[in-house]
Design brief:
The complex is a heterodimer of chains A (504) and B (368). With 504 residues, chain A is α/β, with parallel strands linked by helices. Chain A contains 18 helices and 24 strands. A six-stranded mixed β-sheet of chain A has the order 6-9-10-3-11-12, sandwiched between helices. In chain A, strand 19 and strand 20 form a beta hairpin. The model of chain A has no long low-confidence stretch (mean pLDDT 87). The C terminus of chain B is likely disordered. Helices cover 75% and strands 0% of the residues of chain B. Chain B has a single domain, classed as ABC transporter involved in vitamin B12 uptake, BtuC (Orthogonal Bundle). Chain B is globular. Chain B has 368 residues and is mainly alpha-helical. Chain B contains 14 helices and no strands. The longest helix of chain B has 34 residues. The interface between A and B is large, with 51 and 38 residues.
């Protein structure tokens, strides 16, 4: 790709970027959120058209009007958010859209044999006849890759592939990718995960603010520290822990909490824990072990089956409104569906939930002028990259959207914060920023519950750590008491004793 | 004006443009059909617009016809902002008309303008009560308002029909109706020999008020939030059920006012078929206005012009007035499904672009 330039209203997303991909290599496209990595790949994949610049495949100039053109040329993208039909089988999902025909009917035999052959060849280890909904996330991702391989992809673009995987599944994915590389497939991984880049990439390309910073970094010649500096333009303390300076009495208390889901299944089973003043309590666990239901009960979105929640000694109950009014802030796990209202402006999203506060409204009327000023202050303070707060929040990159939510919650007075996956899909620079803000909140003597699927994050931030498995707390320890491997074992249900035996 | 305010304005202009385009295409296609029917579409359209706008009688008729449409259009627009599809506007209009008639006939101790105002209020309460019922069904039983609205329409229209055929029908009346409302309950005419009353002014004021409410109040903010993303609104502590209920009550009240306007302004009593679909026609009016309360003012007037034009056409020419119904229907189709117009335009655009870039544009083919 040569001198690719792309403009969006208000920003220059890509500025004369050159990129190359060798045959049979794994390239890691590294950059902060908003650096332009996804935009660059969307152009390669035909989803967007560049304002300037050209694309060449094997020296031949090509132009894509839509992804179908790109697919015809062997370029396939595996998206971060899977596009699978849960009720269909693996085969049905893979062939959807290009079903082999036998007259009027679908030639199922041909489809099945081709898919089975691919599964065999690339050692994917999945049953082609299994329904996608019964597969694990890692397996579902392999189905997405299968879709690409079925379409004879020579170039595979993976968008944040490890975002949804457990550490174990990430390793499995990398084995698959290395194998694909041996077979001659060229792979581009869009990521901001430094560890994984170091682990699996042959070469690293770094973008910053739409500009190519470095094109030819070999992981062997560098380290995560250097890479993060390239990405962000300044020194970043990656692993630095900031333990709490002062931990006080119990502030937030959960006693014997049991929560059922809509179908009546117990998702949280008799959970009890305390969070003290000035403490971050982290809960590590694989998604789907009751974290969602726990959060809902602690933020007023669901009524627990039994048990109670106390803030400063007084019971917390009622609706989300009641919880917010009592001072419980919530950073939801799904920013797009739960945290933000996409068509609304950044300004409006900045005050969402707090519109009744005296500085936002008076006599039932919104004080738009004051709100605009407030939103602009928040934008400055939290570094939300946008030319104006009147833009719809959907115009922001994922990382900046998350910053809006963090800014919103941290700019108000809260007693306790329930924070879920605060830096999901967010790059190193923004992540450092958000973590610092969370520390600041804690250091005011408040309580914070941190739930994250990113084990590194939970271990780094927490003053105390719980591990949740199938709705129960299976470990309660200091963050450095166990190694990551041991924690991974606890997260998958191994008993405390067996894990201790394994050793660090 | 910075770039994003400019974008907001241009978005507004685009919306207006889309509505205007829908209208234009509808007129065009309507014209084609009219020609195929053997009539000169020039003649038909001139008859329609001359009839409705060319004479003062026509203009007054246009505005008078627009009045109930503006009420129901506003009612629908209020609901849709929160994500409520109020299909019960017709029934709410009937109920409002009935309650207004009852207060207009039997409350005899109030002086002129007060009585008229109270009667209108009764209409709003009648319609609002039906909205409340629909809201209760939704909150308590999860019954979708789209369904309950339609069912209540039938129930209410038959119920009122029964009343005006039986208990409320005065002995000397020739057709199903109630006794006439007292003079003090009548709405003042804005012009003699016309059905145009102060109800129109009331409605315009309400449209402006609702618009301001939506833009300026906390309540409007919460409604918008719930309408755009109910889940995020819930997480933010906004009570969606309350919003839905409020929207239904207000929406019903508007339709009820429309019924009251018909009773107090046009018929001076409640009659069997007081409305021939005004409740449903509120939907395309709102759609043409892009569900904006201010836009409803103009959209309703436009539809009023078309309808009045139809009446005039019917009276003065041999052209069947069904043609106007057809044009109205076409407007609805093109407003509701703008992609019918936009998609071919896009295809033409990209075709032209492709031709310009020449045969070197590779990458064709592949799976469809």
């Amino acid at each position: 790709m040569s001198e690719i330039t792309k403009r969006y209203p208000g920003t220059l997303a890509l500025n004369k970027v050159d990129a190359r991909l060798e045959e049979g290599e794994i390239l890691s496209l590294l950059g902060e959120n908003g650096a332009g990595k996804t935009t660059l790949m969307k152009i390669l994949y035909g989803m967007e058209k560049p304002d300037a610049g050209e694309i060449f495949i094997h020296g031949e100039k090509v132009a894509f009007n839509n992804p179908n053109d790109a697919i015809a040329r062997g370029i396939c993208m595996v998206h971060q958010h899977f596009m699978l039909v849960p009720a269909f089988t693996v085969v049905e999902n893979v062939i959807a859209g290009i079903e082999p025909r036998k007259g009027v009917f679908i030639d199922r035999r041909a489809a099945e044999s081709k898919v089975a052959a691919l599964v065999e060849k690339y050692r994917f280890n999945i049953d082609p006849h299994a329904k996608v909904e019964s597969l694990s996330v890692g397996e579902q991702q392999r189905v997405e890759i299968l879709k690409a391989l079925y379409r004879d992809a020579k170039i595979l673009i993976l968008d944040e592939p490890s975002a949804v995987l457990t550490p174990y599944e990430v390793d499995e994915l990398f084995i698959t990718l290395r194998f694909l590389r041996e077979q001659g497939t060229s792979i581009v991984i869009i990521t901001h995960k430094l560890k994984e880049t170091m682990n699996v990439a042959d070469r690293v390309m770094v973008l910053r603010n739409g500009v190519l910073i470095h094109d030819d970094v070999k992981p062997a010649d560098t380290n995560p520290q250097e890479l993060s500096e390239m990405m962000v333009g300044r020194l970043i303390q990656l692993e630095a822990r900031h333990p709490s300076p002062r931990i006080g009495g119990v502030k937030f208390s959960v006693k014997n909490l049991t929560v059922k889901d809509e179908r009546g299944c117990e998702k949280v089973k008799d959970v009890s824990f305390d969070i003290r003043e000035g403490e971050i309590l982290g809960i590590a666990g694989i998604e789907g072990n009751g974290q969602c239901e726990l959060i809902e009960a602690l933020t007023g979105l669901t009524t627990p089956e039994s048990g109670e929640v106390l803030l400063d000694g007084k019971p917390l109950c009622g609706t989300a409104r009641d919880f917010i009014d009592r001072g419980v802030g919530h950073v939801p796990e799904d920013r797009t569906h739960m945290g933000l209202i996409a068509p609304m402006t950044i300004k409006c999203n900045m005050i969402l939930g707090y519109q009744d506060c005296p500085d936002m409204s008076r006599h039932k009327l919104m004080r738009w002028k004051e709100i605009a000023t407030y939103a602009e202050t928040c934008r400055e303070e939290f570094g939300v990259k946008t030319p104006t707060v009147e833009a719809p929040v959907s115009s922001l990159s994922g990382g900046n959207q998350q910053k809006v939510i963090i800014a919103r919650v941290l700019s108000r007075e809260h007693e306790a914060l329930i924070v879920a996956h605060p830096t999901r899909g967010i790059d190193v620079g923004a992540q450092e920023y958000i973590h610092n803000e969370l520390y600041k909140f804690r250091d005011k003597g408040k309580a914070m519950l941190l739930i994250s699927a990113d084990l590194d994050e939970v271990v780094k931030l927490s003053d105390r750590l719980l591990v949740i498995y199938e709705g129960r707390i299976v470990a309660d320890c200091a963050p450095e008491e166990f190694s990551k491997v041991q924690l991974g074992l606890l997260m998958t249900g191994n008993s405390l004793e067996s894990v201790k035996e394994v050793g660090a | 004006m910075n770039e994003h305010s400019r974008k907001r304005v241009s978005d507004g202009v685009m919306m207006f443009g889309r509505s205007a385009l829908a209208l234009l295409v509808a007129l065009l296609i309507g014209g084609v059909v009219i020609s195929l029917g053997g009539y000169s579409f020039v003649e038909v359209y001139t008859a329609i617009f001359k009839g409705s706008l060319g004479t003062s009688r026509g203009m007054l008729l246009s505005l008078a016809t627009a009045t109930p449409l503006m009420f129901t259009g506003l009612g629908f627009a209020i609901g849709i902002k929160v994500g409520i599809v109020n299909t019960g506007l017709e029934g709410q209009l009937y109920m409002g008309g009935l309650t207004a008639a009852l207060v207009g006939i039997y409350v005899d101790f109030l002086p002129g303008p007060t009585h008229a105002a109270v009667t209108m209020l009764a209409g709003a309460i009648g319609g609002g009560a039906v909205g409340l019922l629909m809201g209760w069904f939704r909150t308590r039983f999860g019954a979708p308002e789209v369904i309950t609205g339609i069912m209540l329409n039938s129930i209410i229209t038959y119920f009122t029909g029964y009343l005006v055929n039986g208990p409320l029908k005065p002995a000397e009346a020739a057709s199903p109706q109630t006794a006439p409302i007292l003079k003090s309950a009548e709405l003042s005419r804005l012009a003699s020999k016309s059905q145009l009353t102060t109800a129109l002014i009331v409605c315009v004021i309400l449209c402006i008020l609702i618009y301001l409410l939506q833009r300026r109040t906390i309540w409007g903010f919460k409604m918008t939030a719930v309408g755009m993303n109910p889940l995020a609104a819930k997480v933010a502590g906004i009570n969606g059920s309350q919003m839905y209920l409020a929207a239904l009550v207000l929406s019903g009240a508007m339709a009820g006012l429309g019924g009251a306007a018909l009773v107090q302004g046009v018929f001076k009593r409640f009659v069997d078929i007081i409305s021939n679909g005004y409740g449903f026609q509120g939907i395309p009016v709102s759609a043409l206005a892009a569900h904006n309360p201010l836009g409803v003012i103009f959209a309703a007037i436009l539809f009023g012009v078309l309808k009045a034009g139809a009446t005039m056409v019917n009276q003065s020419t041999t052209i069947p007035f069904e043609f106007v119904d057809m044009v109205q229907a076409l407007v609805v189709v093109f407003v509701a499904a703008p992609s019918i117009i936009l998609s071919p335009i896009q295809k033409i655009r990209s075709f032209i672009k492709k031709k310009d870039s020449g045969p070197a544009a590779a990458g064709q083919g592949g799976a469809a």
